[in-house]
Structure formats: C-alpha cells, structure tokens
What does this fold into?
Amino acid sequence: MERRRRTTLEIAKPKIIDFFANAMEKIYTPKDLEDILISNRESWRIAESTSASNFIKFLIAEANIQEFEIKFPSSWTPKFTRYTRGEVSTFDLLSSLRSDFYFSHYTAMYVHQLTEQVPKIIYLTWEQAQKAGPSHHPLVQKKIDWAFRQPPRISSNIAIFGDLQICLLYGTGNLGVTKIKGPEGDEIQVSDIERTLIDITVRPFYAGGVFEVLKAYQLATKKVSINKLAIMLKNLGYKYPYHQAIGFYLERSSAYKESALKIFRNIKKEYDFYLTYQMEEKDMAYSEEWRLFYPKGF
It folds into this structure.
C-alpha cells in the first residue's frame, strides 16, 4: 500500500511547536494566529494552499492549542473566540476579550477582598460613550416611589463558560477603573474600591444583595478613601440621591469614624429614598436621618 504523503504542516510540526513553546503570549485571537501563519509561512515552508482555518485546526490537534468560544445572547455583542496554550486563568482570558472591558460589581468585590464568598457569576462592564452630564429635570417623589416599587432591570446578557456565568453589563465612562494584579496573579482591569462601593450601592442585585453590600463596606474600612468616594459619586452625576444610601451603609456598618459619616451627613437630603427595589411596605423600616427606606431586620 502506498504511504500517504505528509503535508507541509506535518513536516513543519517541530518548528511550529517550538515557536509556540518559546512564545511570550499565551492567548491568541483568530487574527493573531493568521498573522503568525503569514509571517512564518515561507520559513516553515508551508504551502500557499494552507488556509488560516486549516492552520488553526492543526494547532488544536497537534500543538496543544485550546479553543474557547464565549457567546453572549445580545445581538449587540460579538462572539469571542480565543486560543490558548498552557495554563491560562479565567481572569486573564476574559481580560483579553476587549480593552474596554473591566471587572465590576460582585467580581470587583472578590478582587478587592470585600466579600468572603466566591461568586459563580463574573461581572464584566463594557464602557460606552460618556454621559452628557447630570439631568436638569427635577426629581419627583412619586416617581422615585414608583420606580423602586418595581422589580429592578437585571441583565440577561449572560454567557456560559464552564461552570461559570459571565454577565456583561454596560457602563458610561471609566471613572475609577484601574489595573491591578488579580486573584490569580494576572494584571486585570477592574473598578477601584470607591467605584465598586458606588456600583454595588446603585445595583445591589449584582452584588449578592444589600447584606453583602453592607459586608463590603465593613471590609473596605482600611482600604477606602471616603473623600474620594464622595467626589467620585458627584462626578458620576447620578440623578437619584445615592449619597443617602451610602451614608446609611457607612453608619450601619459601625466601622467608620464620625468624620467620614459627616461628609455624607452634610449633603442635602431632599427626597425619601430606597436601599433596594421592590420592598413590600410591611417589610420596610425607615431612617429619619438618611430619609431612607430599608428592609426590616437590616
């Protein structure tokens, strides 16, 4: 029987394996691998008829390259395909999806050690265009009451990744976004502690609920700048009076000095506000000082 003739990829296999074994990069896009093929085709003597897709299939079969696909249900979000060699952390892989993605909410709490839980949902925020600025339309108490009696709008833009869920949120502006070493030693982009505390106050349902938010305030005591927190909140330009909720968390945590509380005590409180959404009247308590409704037993 006539022996099958080896392909040029098979002949070049030792060189290809050696190339990836010595490469600094561990994560590749499809375009990265196509560029590697183009740059090395001549020196590796790979036939012109060998396509990028054939090259990638060869790498997966013969060069210990793994393929990962992350697909969000939203039509606005592209499917992400990444190729890795060796051990790559989940945080590092997700960081490679887009340069304007950052870890936020419960995931940022985990990164900053503001929770004792290990969340099964990873929150990524995708920054969009910066807000034009605070709304000049005055708040109306009846509209606040109505809004917080409703269920919150929770994102269903979730991709399944192994035993994890990746929830992609949309943000405006990158105020308070920083780069630090993540829990697995990789440099990642994440909301800083002050931005994280603001985000989870605004959206406690992305942080495990109000009790987890309170725990985060307690654990942040020696890490957070309350002055920076207040300035950042003002610069974010929220229409709702979230300063009342933040002040309440600071006080209820029993972890901050009066000088810190005073920063938020001195901000005018013109409306009744709510710690979270969809609370039944019979299950609510009220703080006169912060003009804030919160769950009984909190």
In short: The two ends are 80 Å apart (CA to CA). The chain has twelve helices and twelve strands. The domain at 89-295 is CATH 3.30.460 (Beta Polymerase; domain 2).
